[in-house]
C-alpha cells in the first residue's frame, strides 16, 4: 500500500489541477498561434499589441490580454501608452499605498523588483507622485481599489505605436481624434496596415452637410486613413473592476468578418465571453446612448433616496425614448434590444455616468467642474447628451406630433433628453427638474412613444453616415 487515502486523494486533485492548467496553457497558445498565422507573423517576430489610453477599461482590457498571453513572450508583446506626468494628489497616493500594503502578492513583486523603496520615499516625502510611476507597476489611476498585473507602460506615443500590429483605443471619444491624428504621423512609412479595436462609447454630432453622428471608429478612420475593415468596436455590459476580478461578463466585437471572428476567439476567456457582430457603427452609437440616460438615472436615485418606484418610472420612460431613438438610427432596431438594455442596466447599477448623476444631484459635483473627474476619468455621457440633443433638434428630421398634429423635431418627443440637456449643457435647470419632467401630468404613456416609432418608417440611414 502506497500512502494514505488522503494522500492519494491529494495527489489526484493536485495532478488533476496540473493537467487542467497545462490544458489551459495549450489552448491559449493555440489561439495565439492561430492569430499569428492570420497576421502572417514569422517565428521570432511577436504580435505587438498596444493599448492607447490607460483609463479603467483600457487598462483592464490590456491586463486581460497580459494575464492570458503575457507568458508567451517570444510570440506576443503587450504594452500600454499613457500621457506622462499626470499628478496624483496626496490623498489618492496614500490610498494607493494602502492598497499596495494590503496585498502580499503585490508587495512581493515590488520588493523583488527593488521598487518598493521609491514608494516608501514617495509616501513619506512631500514630492508629487505621478500616475505614470504608479502605472509602471500596474496601477490604474481610475481604479485605485484594483492593482493590475504588471504592464509595460510607455509614455512616448511614437515608441508605443509605430510598429504595433493591434492598437486598442482606450481613450475617451473626446480625445480619440486628436491622439490618432498624432499616431497617423508615425504610420506614414508603414507597409502593413494595423488592426484597431476601439473601446470608446462617446459620440459627436455634425449638422452639415446633413445631420449625422460621428463615432470613434469613424474618427479613427478619418484621422489615420486605416480602412474601416481594419477598425472594430468592442462593447458590452461591463464594469471594468469586476471584469478584472473575473466576474462573468460578455461583450461583442463588431466590424468586418475578416477580423472580428478571429479576434473574438483570441479575446474570449472562460469569464469573458466575446461574440461577434457585423453592425459596427450602430452598436457603437448605442454604447453612447445608454450613457445619456444613465446620468438621469443617477439623479433620480439620489433625489428620491433610492426609491425603487421612482427609479422604475424613470426606467420605463428612458427605455421608451431609447427605443424611439433606435428606430431612427437602425434599420432593424429589434436586434439591438438585448445588448442595449443589458448595457443600460449595468451602467445604471454601477457605471460612472450614473455615479456622476448622483453626485450632481447631491451637489457634490457641479457642471462647471467639467466632465473629467479625478478618480473616475471621463464622464462620456455628458458630451453624448449634447450630441443627441443637437442631432434630434434638426428641422430636417421633423415628424408629425401625434397629439398636437403638427410637425416637430424628434427631440420634442424625448422629454428626458430635453431636460438632461437643460441641466447638464445649458444650465437652465437644476437637477431637481428631472423629477418634475417625470411627474408632468401631460407626459404620455411610454407605450405610446414606442407605438409611434413602430408604426412609422423612421429609419434615417444618413444619421449614421450610411448611404
TrEMBL record:
Transmembrane segments: none annotated. Residues 279-433 form the Glycerol-3-phosphate dehydrogenase NAD-dependent C-terminal domain. The keyword Membrane does not apply. Pfam families: NAD_Gly3P_dh_C, NAD_Gly3P_dh_N. Its EC number is 1.1.1.8. It comes from the Eukaryota. InterPro entries: 6-PGluconate_DH-like_C_sf, 6PGD_dom2, G3P_DH_NAD-dep, G3P_DH_NAD-dep_C, G3P_DH_NAD-dep_N, NAD(P)-bd_dom_sf. One of its GO terms (biological process) is glycerol-3-phosphate catabolic process. Residues 151-252 form the Glycerol-3-phosphate dehydrogenase NAD-dependent N-terminal domain. One of its GO terms (cellular component) is cytosol. It catalyses: sn-glycerol 3-phosphate + NAD(+) = dihydroxyacetone phosphate + NADH + H(+). It is found in: Cytoplasm, Cytosol. GO terms for molecular function: glycerol-3-phosphate dehydrogenase (NAD+) activity; NAD binding. Keywords: Cytoplasm, NAD, Oxidoreductase. PANTHER family: GLYCEROL-3-PHOSPHATE DEHYDROGENASE, GLYCEROL-3-PHOSPHATE DEHYDROGENASE [NAD(+)] GPDHC1, CYTOSOLIC. Belongs to the NAD-dependent glycerol-3-phosphate dehydrogenase family. This is Glycerol-3-phosphate dehydrogenase [NAD(+)].
Amino acid at each position: 500500500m502506497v500512502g494514505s487515502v488522503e494522500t492519494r486523494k491529494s495527489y489526484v486533485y493536485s495532478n488533476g489541477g496540473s493537467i487542467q492548467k497545462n490544458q489551459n496553457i495549450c489552448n491559449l497558445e493555440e489561439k495565439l498561434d492561430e492569430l499569428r498565422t492570420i497576421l502572417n507573423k514569422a517565428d521570432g517576430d511577436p504580435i505587438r499589441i498596444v493599448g492607447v489610453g490607460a483609463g479603467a477599461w483600457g487598462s483592464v482590457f490590456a491586463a486581460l490580454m497580459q494575464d492570458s498571453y503575457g507568458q508567451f513572450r517570444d510570440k506576443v508583446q503587450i504594452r500600454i501608452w499613457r500621457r506622462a506626468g499626470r499628478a496624483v494628489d496626496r490623498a489618492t497616493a496614500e490610498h494607493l499605498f494602502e492598497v499596495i500594503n494590503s496585498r502580499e502578492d503585490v508587495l512581493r513583486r515590488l520588493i523583488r523588483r527593488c521598487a518598493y523603496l521609491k514608494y516608501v520615499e514617495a509616501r513619506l516625502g512631500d514630492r508629487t507622485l505621478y500616475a505614470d510611476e504608479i502605472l509602471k507597476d500596474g496601477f490604474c489611476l481610475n481604479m485605485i481599489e484594483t492593482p493590475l498585473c504588471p504592464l509595460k507602460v510607455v509614455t512616448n506615443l511614437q515608441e508605443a505605436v509605430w510598429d504595433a500590429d493591434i492598437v486598442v483605443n482606450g481613450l475617451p471619444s473626446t480625445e480619440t481624434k486628436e491622439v490618432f491624428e498624432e499616431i497617423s504621423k508615425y504610420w506614414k512609412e508603414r507597409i502593413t496596415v494595423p488592426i484597431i479595436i476601439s473601446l470608446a462609447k462617446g459620440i459627436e454630432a455634425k449638422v452639415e452637410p446633413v445631420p449625422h453622428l460621428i463615432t470613434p471608429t469613424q474618427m479613427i478612420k478619418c484621422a489615420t486613413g486605416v480602412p474601416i475593415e481594419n477598425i472594430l468596436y468592442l462593447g458590452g455590459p461591463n464594469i471594468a473592476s469586476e471584469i478584472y476580478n473575473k466576474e462573468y461578463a460578455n461583450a461583442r466585437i463588431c466590424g468586418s468578418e475578416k477580423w472580428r471572428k478571429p479576434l473574438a476567439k483570441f479575446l474570449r476567456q472562460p469569464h469573458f465571453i466575446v461574440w461577434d457582430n457585423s453592425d459596427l457603427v450602430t452598436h457603437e452609437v448605442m454604447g453612447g446612448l445608454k450613457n445619456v440616460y444613465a446620468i438621469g438615472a443617477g439623479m433620480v436615485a439620489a433625489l428620491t433616496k433610492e426609491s425603487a418606484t421612482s427609479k422604475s418610472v424613470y426606467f420605463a420612460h428612458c427605455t421608451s425614448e431609447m427605443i424611439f431613438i433606435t428606430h431612427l438610427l437602425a434599420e432593424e432596431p429589434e436586434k439591438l434590444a438585448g445588448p442595449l438594455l443589458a448595457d443600460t442596466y449595468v451602467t445604471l447599477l454601477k457605471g460612472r455616468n450614473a455615479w456622476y448623476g448622483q453626485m450632481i444631484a447631491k451637489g457634490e459635483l457641479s457642471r462647471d467642474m467639467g466632465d473629467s473627474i479625478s478618480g473616475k476619468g471621463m464622464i462620456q455621457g455628458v458630451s453624448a447628451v449634447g450630441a443627441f440633443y443637437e442631432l434630434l433638434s434638426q428641422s430636417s428630421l421633423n415628424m408629425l406630433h401625434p397629439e398636437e398634429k403638427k410637425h416637430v423635431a424628434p427631440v420634442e418627443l424625448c422629454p428626458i433628453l430635453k431636460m438632461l440637456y437643460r441641466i447638464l449643457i445649458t444650465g437652465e435647470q437644476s437637477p431637481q427638474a428631472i423629477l418634475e419632467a417625470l411627474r408632468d401630468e401631460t407626459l404620455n404613456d411610454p407605450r405610446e412613444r414606442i407605438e409611434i416609432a413602430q408604426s412609422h418608417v423612421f429609419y434615417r440611414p444618413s444619421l449614421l453616415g450610411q448611404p
